[in-house]
Hints:
By secondary structure, this protein is α+β, with helices and mostly antiparallel strands.
Amino acid sequence: xxxxxxxxxxxxxxxxxxxxxxxxxxxxxxxxxxxxxxxxxxxxxxxxxxxxxxxxxxxxxxxxxxxxxxxxxxxxxxxxxxxxxxxxxxxxxxxxxxxxxxxxxxxxxxxxxxxxxxxxxxxxxxxxxxxxxxxxxxxxxxxxxxxxxxxxxxxxxxxxxxxxxxxxxxxxxxxxxxxxxxxxxxxxxxxxxxxxxxxxxxxxxxxxxxxxxxxxxxxxxxxxxxxxxxxxxxxxxxxxxxxxxxxxxxxxxxxxxxxxxxxxxxxxxxxxxxxxxxxxxxxxxxxxxxxxxxxxxxxxxxxxxxxxxxxxxxxxxxxxxxxxxxxxxxxxxxxxxxxxxxxxxxxxxxxxxxxxxxxxxxxxxxxxxxxxxxxxxxxxxxxxxxxxxxxxxxxxxxxxxxxxxxxxxxxxxxxxxxxxxxxxxxxxxxxxxxxxxxxxxxxx
Length: 444
Ligand code: FES
Ligand SMILES: [Fe+2]
């Protein structure tokens, strides 16, 4: 974007409101990709997606098509999906195993699994050319470009396309609890992905999805009808059930009706630098049913009673890792946000298995995945409809600002952490925090 056309981003974001163009302007989107998504740490995938050498999957970081690939030495590499010869994509498939090497389908240049050039057919053709002058086979221009930085935290692989910046741990700060909470709940201390993910393309700006994740005001409105229907059935089943309780999966949906706005207000949001946010309040999924008791036993054996209580006592509903990840760690759910355009956003919806936990606990995660987060559920569909309607409204001339004023002025700031005030769980503090981080990223 030429300098004279760069808008003053600080002016577009006020503490309690944001200009509509932030969501709808294609040039602003391009700058977001450059300054945010193609700079900060972005989640690429879980290492269990590529268990064997040569296993790969493709992923988008900002506007860049990338490859996540397991090398021969066991290390997971993140490479640009582009051949250094004439620019062909190296991997056309979403996932697979490439064997011992990558072989470009256009002119058969071959590459090691870490991107280094292996062979160029008819080498003699390059004598005296720029490639040979710069080191022939060792010429870095002949290798597949790597992501500037790659880090793996407990199996979750992140890449940054910028060589400078905070380390992954510094960047994540307190939001790192999302991955600790998920892995610690596994008796073996780690999780594995359950392939494959759901992919949903929404016709709305990527920030609308992120802002919705910690919007505790919306569930009792948007999801009320689904919650009520589930609650009606839950009551009937509970009457018939011997123990007086319907299966837990009904509760996953009925909670959208029974947890009313004043109850959501009992939760709290914690807002951190770089735009990360946590919504506290576990949804009461620690029942005393036989499956849970069996899981508790395995966990106590693995960790001891004291540590077990600490692990299952972690009080998190949702962690938002800005700018592209929404994690529900107690239920092993993760949604990765991949912006495709100013009004098009892909979400990848993943769930994980706790290694060493009984099968019934995995089934619980799967039930939540299907009932709440999948494209098949009305919960997701109702959210999607609102995202689309928001984008439509924001594209109109019906107003210039988006209001983020709920409980503004009542946030509590301490040591760089902004908490929503007491009994203000439905505060718009998380959206204010995300936009504050956005303005900072964009203005630098
Ligand atoms: S474009 Fe890849 S070998 Fe030619
Ligand atoms: Fe929702």
